[in-house]
């Protein structure tokens, strides 16, 4: 804007001053950190990030466990190698990013200009997120696959889990039960994965599934395609080893039992439970709310294990490919029934060993365990701990451990009428006008018709005023030619004599023999949920014992008998405490409502050491 002027007498223009002056020139702004230093630090930071990203991708490509889409020769692996080359040229050869990316594109087989731009994008994403680029090939909305149809997926999954693809069902059954020797099991597994399952799936698709959905395949389905479909459905090639039982683990009744019975029972004993800090398992966690008259509770884990004389190392050093000569079959074996706890470790005096087999000491059963529990386990625990401690026994939920006493009030053991082949049951009781009335289950010795004989269902119901005319012994539903299925409706209460007795309070409150022995001795019995071996920390103990036996195996039964006590005593109590803390983390995961897979991932998040043997979950690092 021009400055206004006036003409003076001399004729020259004179500027008029309105009081507005031009601001003086500003001084150069002084920064706390010079711009060149900021730029230099930014360059150093980018270089450090690129160097760290280079190390990570080199480790990924060198790892044998790394998995890429379509394998190590696929497109994703090729892109990963391009990222590695680009970062190598930038970090170690000090080239500019554009030049390095274009050179990397040419080296891996991409176009120089377009490939260079793509590699720069992939490299930036890898530095920021450590995520490899994924290919969009085959993902166009017009591309359709039968596996995208939910109905087809359901049928396919049902067929694969039904084991109808098996060429030799008997051998498959032996394999799944772990009866095959390791070498034969390994060969059979390779045969199953490479031939039997793909061929069975191929035949099922071409003969049954495709015609049902009105589709035909001109050249059929190749074994390679069948294997890819197996992988997409979640099947994978892996070695035969023990682990979590996923098939029954998430069954509705099993989950209900875990959430409604087991976890609340463990939570109830928590205020008095002896625990050790995960940071230092030699230090016991104090119990501030323990009353003077209350006893501390110690978890005592019980389980059984078998070991065979020929169960040695699966791998060994050999001279120039020479195969060592090993004895055939598993050999003679020992059965162990033991308990461990976090306070003293393995209870040696409570151990029970037998040579199992038809021609030897027979086989272990629930009655033997009840005798061991009453004569060894409980007395030894009380001797080792004293009167100030109470045991909480973790018992496997097996058929033998859940067996009832001979005289237990079980309606299915009774006849309908008096006498006959039926056991003499213990006295029962029922409520009459709010008063508990005792009832004998056998007639007196001076009875004129049935002296000393069991009364049977009908007489018991008559004495309880529950009998009605034409009442049957038990329900017979779903009658078939090959037999009859006994079944009552879920909501029925008086459909048959057996259901009426089952709902009586004395029959309904009947406990297994093992639980009666433990509770009569003043201790706590907690049955584990079915298929939940990860909640019993003695399973990890067996893994350590078997490892010791394999390392010292001489393939003789005498050597096995000699090594067994040493193997049991070789596990330190500090390791047992870590295993107990690990099972507590599993319980915490299940309390959050997580399933088996999610709970396993939750436990792995706090791992300090990962194990791969005998049903092991990683070690935990959280407070109990």
UniProtKB/TrEMBL annotation:
Region of interest (Disordered), ranges: 1-28
Coiled coil: none
Source domain of life: Eukaryota
GO molecular function annotations of the record: nucleic acid binding
Protein name as catalogued: Tc1-like transposase DDE domain-containing protein
Organism: Candolleomyces aberdarensis
């Amino acid at each position: 804007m021009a400055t206004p002027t006036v003409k003076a007498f001399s004729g020259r223009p004179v500027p008029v001053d309105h009081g507005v002056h031009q601001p003086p020139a500003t001084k150069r702004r002084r920064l706390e950190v010079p711009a060149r230093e900021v730029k230099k630090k930014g360059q150093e930071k980018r270089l450090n990030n690129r160097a760290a990203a280079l190390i990570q991708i080199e480790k990924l490509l060198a790892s044998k466990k790394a998995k890429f889409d379509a394998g190590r020769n696929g497109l994703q692996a090729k892109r990963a190698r391009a990222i590695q080359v680009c970062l190598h040229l930038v970090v170690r050869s000090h080239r500019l990013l554009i030049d390095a990316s274009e050179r990397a594109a040419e080296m891996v087989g991409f176009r120089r200009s377009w490939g260079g731009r793509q590699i720069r994008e992939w490299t930036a994403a890898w530095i920021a997120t450590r995520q490899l680029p994924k290919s969009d090939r085959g993902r166009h909305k017009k591309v359709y696959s039968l596996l995208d149809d939910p109905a087809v997926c359901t049928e396919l999954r049902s067929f694969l889990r039904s084991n109808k693809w098996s060429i030799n069902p008997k051998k498959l059954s032996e394999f799944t039960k772990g009866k095959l020797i390791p070498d034969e099991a390994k060969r059979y597994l390779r045969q199953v994965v490479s031939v039997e399952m793909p061929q069975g799936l191929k035949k099922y698709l071409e003969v049954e599934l495709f015609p049902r959905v009105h589709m035909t395949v001109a050249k059929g389905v190749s074994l390679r395609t069948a294997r890819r479909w197996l992988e997409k459905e979640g099947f994978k090639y892996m070695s035969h080893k023990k682990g979590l039982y996923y098939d029954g683990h998430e069954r509705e009744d099993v989950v209900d039992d875990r959430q409604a019975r087991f976890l609340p029972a463990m939570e109830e004993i928590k205020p008095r439970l002896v625990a050790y800090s995960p940071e230092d398992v030699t230090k016991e966690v104090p119990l501030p709310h323990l009353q003077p008259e209350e006893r501390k509770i110690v978890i005592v884990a019980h389980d059984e294990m078998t070991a065979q004389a020929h169960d040695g190392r699966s791998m060994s050093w050999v001279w120039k490919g020479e195969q060592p000569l090993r004895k055939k079959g598993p050999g003679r074996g020992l059965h162990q029934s033991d308990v461990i706890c976090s306070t003293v470790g393995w209870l040696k005096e409570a151990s029970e060993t037998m040579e199992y087999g038809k021609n030897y000491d027979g086989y272990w059963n629930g009655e033997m365990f009840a005798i061991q529990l009453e004569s060894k386990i409980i007395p030894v625990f009380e001797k080792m701990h004293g009167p100030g401690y109470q045991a909480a026994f973790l018992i496997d939920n097996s058929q033998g451990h859940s067996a009832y006493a001979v005289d237990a009030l079980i309606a299915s053991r009774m006849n309908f009428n008096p006498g006959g082949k039926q056991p003499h049951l213990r006295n029962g009781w029922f409520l009459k006008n709010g008063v508990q009335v005792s009832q004998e289950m056998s007639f007196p010795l001076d009875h004129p018709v049935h002296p000393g004989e069991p009364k049977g269902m009908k007489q018991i119901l008559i004495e309880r005023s529950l009998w009605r005319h034409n009442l049957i012994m038990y329900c017979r539903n779903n009658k078939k030619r090959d037999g009859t299925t006994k079944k009552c409706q879920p909501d029925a209460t008086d459909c048959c004599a057996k259901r009426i007795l089952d709902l009586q309070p004395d029959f309904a409150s009947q406990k297994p023999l093992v639980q009666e022995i433990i509770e009569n001795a003043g201790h706590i019995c907690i049955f584990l949920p079915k298929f939940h071996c990860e909640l019993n920390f003695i399973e990890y103990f067996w893994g350590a014992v078997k490892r010791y036996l394999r390392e010292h195996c001489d393939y003789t039964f005498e050597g096995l008998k000699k090594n067994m006590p040493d193997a049991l005593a070789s596990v330190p109590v500090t390791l047992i405490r870590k295993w107990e803390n690990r099972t507590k983390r599993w319980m915490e995961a299940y309390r959050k409502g997580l399933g088996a897979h999610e709970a396993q991932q939750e436990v792995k998040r706090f791992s300090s050491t990962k194990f791969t043997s005998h049903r092991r979950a990683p070690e935990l690092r959280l407070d109990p």
